[in-house]
């Protein structure tokens, strides 16, 4: 027997006898309470030892429940009492506090110096100029729309990323869209479709078409051109985004737990209410690169010429280059590509998919930017970066690596009041944001929270322009990858862009040797199939570049 099992038998036998005798001989509130306590302890302990499914309960009756109780509050205990300002994941307290302060329009400065280790490996920083400048007024928006687009759209540098009605509550969706209207940015619907709550306040919308085709599917789940056209031609819909994959769970369809599916959501999505809604891993309209591009043309035609793009998390580089080949062969290009990073968030994802798949956002954006340059396509296609953006530096880093604009999701949720409790997949969100529980979601005040979304966007964008100006630039489009500095393990700084050999315009199309893996990847790429074997063996870029440089040195 364990000590707690022995203790149980002592209480169940001797303890109950003593309590009964005291209750009979000295009847009082105290003796009655003691008797109830020993009987309750004995009842719970007996159930634990002989009927519980948990080994801990059988070996440690009654007290094992204390362990489960404390474990249920582990995240909160760690967040409030243990973790320092810079060590939590995915967003530390410093990042969360910055979002809250900017959302509330209160002081967002710090005192007494940085808490960051400036010599930490991979620490990112910038070099400022002695001649700071102001960003030009006409450089504060980004034009979306390639050569085949009839209705171009001028977007903000920072926008609200994809979050579906279903994943988020109706009040949260309303607050985000009204905030987008006030801030002058767009609001991506997420793959759940353009719900009435996305449309109610007339903020600019990017309608995402996921692999489940929610919002434009027939009763059998196939694409419905009529329902798509009816929604896509609305003035509020500014752009349409085809979702191929998501950074938080690439290779896996979107997941909406059954606990969060209401009658309304089931009706909007045309899905069953009694089981998890798991979208297909592959968009049925985009099974090959050329199928995807033909779908782009179809959506552009049905939407009367609005910007059409697609979203993906970069995995095997060969497969994206296959897409570039398909664009060259067909002459069809999307208006934009959204590059989602592996560090991106989601309401529900398998741990292995979220932790181990895909390129991070900066890597993916830099690769995509160079691939499009090398294929001679960059001037026709905008790049949107998506993945963990809290500060204006996060925004600047993504723009510098090649993005034209940036989407943020979790920090927009924080501007609504999200506290990173990580209960998004349980329907038990304590702030009423990521839940369909009406008692919880009604706590989100749409008008008040929309102001906070506007404030966070405004203050972050203003800080971004000021940061760009501190580098001596008057236009964010002048940012370049090498301006971003990374701390090496040797304690020195190096330009981030130097880690991978950049490509020149049309370099992939020219019959000459290309340094690094680009040549192998390009020759392996196919325009008729996404899949390609991952056979290229990557080696440290700095080693190969050092070898290349040393081979050019002439002996004295």
TrEMBL record:
Keywords: Membrane, Oxidoreductase, Transmembrane, Transmembrane helix. InterPro entries: Aldolase_TIM, GltB, Glu_synthdom. The keyword Transmembrane applies. The chain crosses the membrane at residues 7-24. One of its GO terms (biological process) is glutamate biosynthetic process. Gene3D superfamilies: Aldolase class I. Residues 158-473 form the Glutamate synthase domain. It comes from the Bacteria. It holds the Pfam family Glu_synthase. Its EC number is 1.4.1.13. Coiled coil: none annotated. The keyword Iron does not apply. One of its GO terms (molecular function) is glutamate synthase (NADPH) activity. Belongs to the glutamate synthase family. This is Glutamate synthase domain protein.
């Amino acid at each position: 027997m364990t000590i707690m099992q022995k203790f149980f038998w002592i209480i169940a036998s001797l303890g109950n006898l003593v309590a009964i005798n005291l209750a009979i001989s000295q009847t009082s509130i105290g003796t009655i309470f003691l008797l109830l306590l020993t009987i309750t302890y004995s009842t719970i302990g007996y159930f634990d030892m002989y009927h519980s499914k948990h080994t801990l309960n059988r070996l440690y009756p009654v007290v094992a429940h204390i362990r489960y109780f404390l474990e249920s509050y582990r995240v909160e205990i760690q967040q409030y009492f243990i973790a320092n300002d810079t060590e939590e994941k995915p967003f530390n307290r410093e990042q969360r506090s910055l979002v809250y302060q900017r959302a509330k329009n209160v002081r967002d400065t710090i005192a007494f110096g940085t808490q960051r280790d400036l010599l930490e490996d991979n620490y990112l920083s910038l070099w400022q100029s002695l001649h700071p400048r102001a960003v030009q007024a006409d450089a504060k928006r980004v034009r979306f729309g390639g050569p085949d687009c009839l209705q171009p759209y001028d977007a903000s540098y920072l926008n609200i990323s994809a979050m579906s009605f279903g994943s988020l509550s109706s009040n949260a969706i309303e607050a985000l869209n009204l905030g987008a209207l006030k801030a002058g940015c767009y609001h991506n619907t997420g793959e759940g479709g353009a719900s009435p709550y996305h449309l109610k306040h007339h903020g600019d919308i990017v309608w995402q078409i996921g692999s489940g085709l929610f919002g434009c599917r027939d009763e059998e789940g196939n694409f419905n051109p009529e329902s798509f056209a009816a929604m896509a031609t609305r003035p509020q819909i500014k752009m349409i985004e085809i979702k191929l994959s998501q950074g938080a769970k690439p290779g896996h369809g979107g997941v909406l737990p059954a606990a969060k599916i209401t009658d309304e959501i089931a009706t909007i999505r045309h899905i069953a209410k009694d089981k998890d809604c798991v979208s297909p891993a592959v968009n049925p309209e985009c099974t090959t690169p050329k199928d995807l591009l033909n779908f782009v043309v179809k959506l552009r035609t049905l939407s009367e010429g609005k910007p059409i793009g697609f979203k993906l998390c970069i995995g095997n580089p060969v497969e994206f280059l296959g897409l570039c080949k398909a664009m060259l062969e067909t002459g069809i290009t999307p208006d934009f590509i959204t590059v989602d990073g592996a560090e991106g968030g989601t309401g529900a994802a398998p741990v292995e998919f979220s932790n181990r798949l895909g390129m991070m956002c900066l890597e993916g954006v830099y690769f995509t930017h160079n691939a499009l340059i090398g294929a001679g396509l960059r001037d026709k296609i905008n790049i949107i970066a998506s993945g963990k953006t809290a500060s204006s530096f996060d925004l600047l880093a993504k723009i510098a690596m090649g993005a034209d604009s940036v989407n943020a999701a979790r920090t927009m949720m924080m501007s609504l009041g999200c506290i990173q409790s990580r209960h998004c997949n349980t329907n038990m969100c304590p702030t009423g944001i990521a839940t369909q529980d009406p008692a919880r979601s009604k706590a989100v005040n749409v008008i008040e929270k929309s102001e906070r979304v506007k404030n966070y966007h405004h203050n972050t964008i203003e800080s971004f322009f000021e940061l760009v100006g501190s580098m001596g630039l008057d236009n964010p489009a002048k940012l370049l990858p090498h301006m971003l500095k990374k701390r090496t393990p040797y304690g020195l700084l190096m330009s981030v862009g130097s880690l991978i050999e950049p490509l020149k315009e049309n370099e992939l199309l020219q019959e000459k040797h290309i340094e690094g893996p680009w040549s192998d990847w390009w020759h392996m790429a196919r325009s008729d199939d996404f899949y390609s074997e991952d056979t290229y063996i990557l080696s440290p870029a700095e080693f190969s570049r050092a070898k290349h440089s040393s081979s050019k040195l002439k002996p004295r």
